[in-house]
Amino acid sequence: MSDKVQIKNKTLSVKQCDITDTEIDAFVFYARNDLKLGSGFGNAIALRGGPTVRKELENLGPVNVTDAVITTAGGMKAKKIIHAVGPKFQEQDTVKKLKLTILNALKVAESNGVEKIAFPPMGSGFYGVPLDESAKITTETIAEYLKNGSEIKEVVICANDNRELKPLQEQLKKLSN
Amino acid sequence: MFLMNDENKKRSYKAQKVIDRLGKKLNRQMVGSLAACVHCGMCTDSCHYVLANPGDPTYAPAYKADKIRKIFKRHYDWTGSVLPSWVGAKSVFTDEELEELKDTAFGKCTNCRRCTINCPMGVDFATFNRMTRGLLVHVGIMPEGVEYVSKEQWEIGNQMGVLKEQYLETLEWQEEELQGEVNNPKAKIPIDKMNANIVYTINPREIKHDPRSILDAAKIFYAAKENWTMPSEGWDMTNFGLFSGDDDLGGAVAGRVYEKVEELKGKKLVMSECGHGYRSTRCEGPNWAKKDIKFEAESSVITMLNYIKEGKIHVDKSKNDSSYTFHDSCNNARSCGLTEEPRELLNYVVGDFREMYPNRAENFCCTGGGGAMSMSEYRPRRLQSAIVKAKQLEATGTKYVVTSCHNCVDGLNDVIKHYNLDMKVTQLVNLVSNALVI
Predict the structure, then answer these.
(1) CB contact under 8 A, B154 and A88
(2) What does the CA dihedral B115, B116, B118, B121 come to, rounded to 10 degrees?
(3) Across the interface, which of B156, B256, B259 has its CB nearest the CB of A40?
(4) Res B106 pLDDT > 50
(5) How many CB pairs under 8 A join A and B?
(6) Residue of A nearest to B248 (CA)
(7) Co-location of B399 and B260 in the same domain
(8) Residue B151 with chain A: CB contacts under 8 Å
(9) Most exposed among A96, A161, B350, B407, judged by the fewest C-beta atoms under 10 Å?
(10) What's the average model confidence in pLDDT over B413-418?
């Protein structure tokens, strides 16, 4: 199993970690259209980041599916949070929308000088994108973006557990072949 | 006219997804339950919602079951496909109809399985009601509370969004309490200890609202000189997938617990007192996670009972000098057969134990089961149906109701408060700890 691939001197890696407790320039939060933080990682952002993030979001939402916006990360280990609104619960054109969401997150990161960014397996888990599909789309879309030339130097995909990690590793293996 | 041509009627995207997924969820058990109902009405009197609402037929299990059964018949049963009105087959077309289905599946049933065990045809309504919930969750139709809690468990790893640092801080605090109570500064709540005999997992409610139960368990392990540990991750033995019908969540949560026990090379997984957690982690989890578990897994009720029987701990029942009844959790009693061990243990640690009637597998739900405690929109209905439980509790004449389920603790507390009963709720771990002779 592969944990890392090099793409034009950039690194794409996967590891098991808590995305909301990672030292990094920015991480992607799979957000709601109204940009309310809600539970799960949103709860972790509210608890670890403090009230700043929520306050910044008040002036940014609501946004459309596939949009991405950036805020600071309050008191968290990361410096910024990219709030990316991906497709949810088997909605129409999920694959297309998911790719676009990832691309928009990367673009927002790059235009804000982010060099090192963390992604979750986009849309999997609660929002119901099948894990294999999520792993494929997340890794391929990021790899393609890095291949086309980017100021982003490192992307890490944070898996919550082994169940999430394995399909991501398999996808990286395919990319490295 | 038996033929009913609804083929050309426009169907919403979500309704079509629900129909498609229903086909993927059908197994022999499910089809048996969907096909076998003869509408004899035996289930009706077994449901606490019906008993509390005798004039409202929409609470009858057979009526509720027909809401999903008619879709099954219309799309997956040949008679229903050919002659739909002959067999009451009817499709679903709109998001509004799915919302109505949500109201039934989540708001009119606690999946307690009392109707299931009273069905002469073996119809397991609770199981396919759970499946129905899962179909709806899959397309994003669910009560707000279900959404909130599911996301916590998917992403943070436990139902109450307890962060790792909060969990560890609470254990550290309880360790200090333990040292004070047993007057030994070396007493420990070990974390991630390798090769322990017992890996002890808990309900996140214990961290958030009831840390005393962790302390009590630690005190019992201390007294038994047990080689035990608590895991730093994979410590939540509850599983909201059981309530939401999301098998993927069920598998992810159970898998995290199993993998941590394996990583620590623990010999036995012990689960604190939680009915749905026990059922999920002990009974359903291996199927959801598609994983064989190679270690023992037991309820802490059995662990505590064995400590007493084997002379590893000594108890003095006179320390618990009130009157006590026992409430069987639906998941423990009806789904896992855990009925005698808690009574045996209770009789070791209290002097005045009085049965509640009916009891064991026929006991009534605390009304907080099936995730009902998280669905605030249905609270008035839940508390209205709780008159059945309130009468049961009152008839015992005891000061305490004991249960082996954290969810039931909250459910019963609500019932007691709503119906002004002069009772308190406690768990076996609290009574055993209190009775300890160290």
Answers:
(1) no
(2) 120
(3) B156
(4) yes
(5) 66
(6) A125
(7) no
(8) 38-40, 42, 126
(9) A96
(10) 98
State the average pLDDT for chain B.
97
Res B1 pLDDT > 70: no
| Chain B touched by A176 (CB under 8 Å) | no
Instruction: Determine the average pLDDT of the residues in B343-356.
Output: 98
Structure tokens at B143: 């009560």
Distance CA B132, CA B111 (A): 11
Q: Is the predicted pLDDT of residue B4 greater than 60, yes or no?
A: no
Q: Please give the Cα distance from B42 to B434 (Å, whole number).
A: 43
- Checking if the pLDDT of A22 tops 90, the result is yes
Instruction: List the single best residue of B156, B158, B232 to mutate versus A (max A Cβ within 10 A).
Output: B156
B2 inside domain: no
Q: Which residue of B has its CA nearest to A43?
A: B161
Tracing tokens 């605390």 back to the chain, one arrives at B366
Among candidates A47, A160, A161 on the partner chain, residue whose Cβ is nearest the Cβ of B163:
A47
Number of domains within chain B:
3
Q: How many residues does chain A have?
A: 177
3-state helix, strand, coil in chain B (%, to 5): 55, 10, 35
Residues 23-82 of A with CB under 8 A from B: 38-44, 47-48
In a domain, B99, yes or no: yes
pLDDT at B5 exceeding the cut of 90: no
Q: Tell me the residue type at B255.
A: G
Fold exhibited by the domain A4-176: Leucine Aminopeptidase, subunit E; domain 1 (3.40.220)
Task: ipTM value, please give it.
Answer: 0.98
The torsion region of residue B274 among left (phi > 0), alpha (psi -120 to 50) and beta comes to beta
* Cβ contact B155–A47 (<8 Å): no
Question: Which of B305, B315, B342, B325 shows the shortest CA–CA distance to B393?
Answer: B325
CB contact under 8 A, B252 and A89: no
Q: Give the mean model confidence (pLDDT) for residues B149-158.
A: 98
From residue B162, alpha-carbon distances to A77, A90, B131, B155 in Å are 18, 29, 28, 11
Q: In Å, how far from its chain's centre is CA A30?
A: 7
d(CA A83, CA A41): 11
Is B223 in the same domain as B325? Answer: no
With respect to residue B5, please indicate whether it lies within any of the assigned structural domains: no
- Contact residues, chain A, for B156 at CB < 8 Å: 40-41, 43-44
Identify whether the C-beta of residue B255 lies closer than 8 Å to the C-beta of residue B289: yes
Q: E strand or H helix at B22, and its extent?
A: helix B13-25
Distances (CA, A) of A95 to A82, A84, A87, B277: 20, 15, 8, 35
| Gap between the Cα atoms of B133 and B129, Å rounded | 6
Residue A127: DSSP 8-state: G
Average pLDDT estimate for A164-168: 98
Q: Do B259 and A43 touch (CB under 8 A)?
A: no
Mean pLDDT of B403-420: 98
Contacts of residue A90 in chain B, CB cutoff 8 Å? 17, 138-140
